[in-house]
Design brief:
Blueprint: E1 2-5, H1 11-14, E2 22-30, E3 33-36, H2 49-55, E4 61-65, H3 71-80, E5 86-89, H4 93-101, E6 108-111, H5 117-122, E7 129-132, H6 142-148, E8 152-156, H7 167-177, E9 183-186, H8 191-195
Parallel strand pairs: 1-2, 1-9, 2-4, 4-5, 6-7, 7-8, 8-9
Antiparallel strand pairs: 2-3
Amino acid sequence: MEIVVHRINTIEGLKSVPTHFGAEIDLRARGSELYLHHDAFREREADAFVDYLETYRHGLLVLNIKEAGIETEVLRLVRERGIERYFLLDVEFPYLYRASRQGERAIAVRYSEDESIETALAYKERVDWVWIDSNTRLPLDETVKTQLSGLKTCLVCPERWGRPQDIPAYKFQLAMLDFRLDAVMTSLACAPLWQA
């Protein structure tokens, strides 16, 4: 299982992440330029996406799309720089529908206690990833395990929801289900808890 560190939106921040870890980043547009920033309408300067990609030597890159319409350009830039492991996250449904039918597989569909497993199943043959969120609980059981078979999985650590104390219980539940995650998104501080 690979560790993906949450919200590494600066080149400086990326330097603190071990290269065997991945990074989750937030992408926006300012005119024709793409940049990294989680929040819209902030005055603070942000790193350019092209500059970030030039320095990226890490694992799985999760590309969290914060503005519709930039997906194709994001993928072009990532592929142009030879990054091999990545996927788009939080794309709007029209893009998911259109792009997946045109053969684009580097997209994650979401599944959680409030986001239907049916959507993940409907796209199982069209995309490679499912993003498993843990709003208040780990939404996995034997049935879901079977249903998600064949998709790569990335779990949102409960620490992202303010519950780092749930990590041991989640690890136990995953072990009992023999559910092998491909990745977990967490903070750098909680990464050792997933590696133990």
